[in-house]
Amino acid sequence: MSSLGSSSGVVVLLVSHDGARWLPGVVEGLGEQVVVPDGVVVVDTGSRDESVDLLPEHHDVVSVAASTSYPEAVRRGLERIAVTHADAEWVWLLHDDSRPAPRALSSLLDAAARRPDVDLLGPKLREWPSLRRLLELGVTISGTGRRETGLERGEYDQGQHDDEREVLAVSSAGMLVRRRVLEDLGGFDPRLPLFGNDLDLGWRAAAAGHTTLVVPSAVVFHAEAAHRGVRETTLGGHTHVHERRAALYTLLVNSSAAALPWRLLRLTLGTVVRMLGFLVIRSPGEAVDDLAALVTVVFQPRALRAGRRERREWLQRAGRAPDTERVRRLLAPAWVPYRHGLDFVGDLVSALTSQAADVAERRRVAAAELDPSSQAAARLRAERAAREEEDDLADSGAVARFFTNPVALLLVLVVVGMLVASRTALGEVSGGALSPVPDDTGSWWALHYDTWHPLGFGTDVPAPPYVVLLALLASVLGPTATVSALLVLSLPLGLWGAFRFLRVAGRLVSPRGAPRWLLVGGATTYSLAPVTSGAWGEGRLGLVVAAALLPWLAHAALGFADPGVDRRRRAGWRVGLLLALVAAFAPVAWFVALALVAVALVGALALARDAVTSRDVWGAPATALGVPLVLHAPWWLPALVGGHGGALLLETGRAPAPGTGRWGLLLGRLGDLGAPAWIGVVLVVVGLLALLPRASRIPVILCWIVALVAVVVGALLTPVTIGLTGTDTPTGLGAPMLVVQACLVTAVVLGAQGAVRGRLATGWRVLAAAGAVAALAVPIAGAAWWATADDSLTSSDASIVPEYMVQRSELGPEHGVLVVRGSVDDGLIYTVRRGDGLTLGEDEVLDLTTPGSDVTATVRALLSRPTPEVVDRLGDLGVEYVLLVAPADGTVAAALDGATGLVQSSSGPRSRAWQVDRPLAAGAVDGDGTSWFRVLLLVVQGLAFLAVLVLAAPTLRTERES
Length: 962
Known about the structure:
By secondary structure, this protein is of the alpha/beta class. Among the domains are: 10-237 and 323-333, Alpha-Beta Complex (Spore Coat Polysaccharide Biosynthesis Protein SpsA, Chain A), CATH 3.90.550.60; 803-916, no CATH class. It is built from 38 helices and 19 strands. Helix 18 (479-509) packs parallel to helix 22. It is elongated and about 120 Å long.
């Protein structure tokens, strides 16, 4: 019993609104109290159900309108208590969905007797009807407006939080408060009609010097009907917007004047971040609610000013200064929002990395559940239990296991070897097919944004799609570090992606998956494909990045086989996003994907026509093919309209691209570049041997089908040549080559898994063992070749243009240098250097540019019969120097020596140079800037990118918190 004697001095104030679902339990809980309250005042806010009829006759009922807010209802209840129980010291606030445990009031009163300095007390809140899950043990608020309970998500009550402690606030569902203090504080703020008023009251009480205590021995079960949307309120269905508005209002109205500007700025920026987070987890409604809450609070400052004025006047009347130290101590620590951010990122990464593994697990479970009594089902259950036990052991000793795990150490050794071998790509690097990077990131942004580019004699050819990706990365890392990072880190990224994909693919064959040594060998072999093909050493940045992304694309494509329709749809968006990234660096990859989808749908039509015609089946692959078309629209659409369709088949980097050929696709070689061909032959032969084990024959056949489709696409494109300015180049077949290599590696790993896990005759087993040994020789031989081979990458300046011409060209686009190569007998080729010369991303633009007929005629006349009019025309075209590259053709040099208006200049050995002694046109290569059509395409691209990111993200199934 309470130490307060026979009279408890407590009056229960119960606010009810359409609570018939819970009210009988609340009334029963009040009747079970060990300490009987002096009275019960019920304020019913216009209930339309039988709530009032469920109340006992001895309860004092005050009926008010349905539009009455909770603060107003409490005020009306206090007025009735002042009349009927004038001597009551305490008011116990309850909701019609909060049932107190029998000793709840007794425990609160006992704590009040032990702590006379306490004016507000709150119970432990547990979820109703689960009864064991914790909801609150006192609350506070973070600097971002998050209601902080200090509890883990879904935490159960095991007595772990049963210490009494001072808190900022306690919930009004079970709050015991001194009646005098509640009246002095003015009750709850009427500007907080339903949510957040308990936090505001607690903050004001702490500022006034009052103590709020949470008493865990007092238990109240709370259904949180309004918060969970179970009960219809006068605020409407958008619960989140009102909760967020209450949090923002509470922070701003109670902050000091000095902290108000900083808190306002933080909440504004924090709202933007929260909106992005909600969009990532596909909750656009809550994102809009966050924005609406911010707007209603910030753009209606009258309520804020009034609330802050009331708080100042109340403290002045009470003769008190705000107890800022107490409030600061009770607010959530400053690091709490960052912890929540890290938790969110962790949840997102976990959801991303486990997506395909979940697909494989569900497929195996679904297959086993078709016959629960089968041996397969029993084996699946046993293997799952063993794997869970193994995972538990791995989690408990991860560090110790790492240093004793040869597979982990081997992977680390492989990655370190890659980083060491790729050290030539560190710093300013160019050479081969790789042009130098621009001096600043703005050059890449301008190349992506502008319709007209001051390259050569001016061009409207659109920038390749990978330029915007380079610009995004360079905005953080800088241009030089961006290219170095892509060249150095792409190989470890490809290794990681290949390991993940092969692990999941192996589990699709067998629940136990492939042995780890097979995964390491296969992943290493694939990750070295851009090296052994010659792409890395030649500086083919596009193929290097595409090779790193391809395993992740294949991993996402496994989601097409998910039994859940929603997951298949998200897989379509995810595959589309990754395909857009791959196709940005290797455009032909989209055509390979188109062929694979067509073959898959045609094959499925032949086997199960009715199933394939469903939109739920073909919709995801169609989405995957459509996403790159939308995201790359600022590139391919102007290219086709402007007659530059060759860009869709062009290999990234300097032209001409090396010819791959049909055998190059199978052997993984770009022309004469790369490692010895016998390494590729071994992989093909072992891939054929992978067809022998029966246990894995079907997935290996699928790998070969995909490889053959890529070979057919490459064979169809092999005869195609793209006409560029001054030369022709074969179609870029790097993407089909990478697909073939990935399929061969996957076939070898799955075949070896089938040989190891399955049953083979002795002769076939010996042959399979020989194949496995040969397969292991492939990555070792590739790594050894890389360690001893030379590459074309260098950090030295290999420019053939004299330094003084370079300095002049950087003064403006009108100071161009006309560079002429070749001879009269073999043909002459010319280019124009402007600014800092051709940089990464500009090669394809200039190669696809066809000079105007007047420009061609002027240059032809200059190199054959240069007249004063022709030289004048050079000045109009923004050419200040003419450079004949060594070995300079004598006939052309003699003609230029005698030309009026050309003055000989210094040059390198066996080269010749002349300066144009004529006025230079400052606007020679100026264009129309950026057209409205391109702006429209860029806006669509940006919005589509954000939408695809949201749609591709995994669902984080978490409980929404207030």
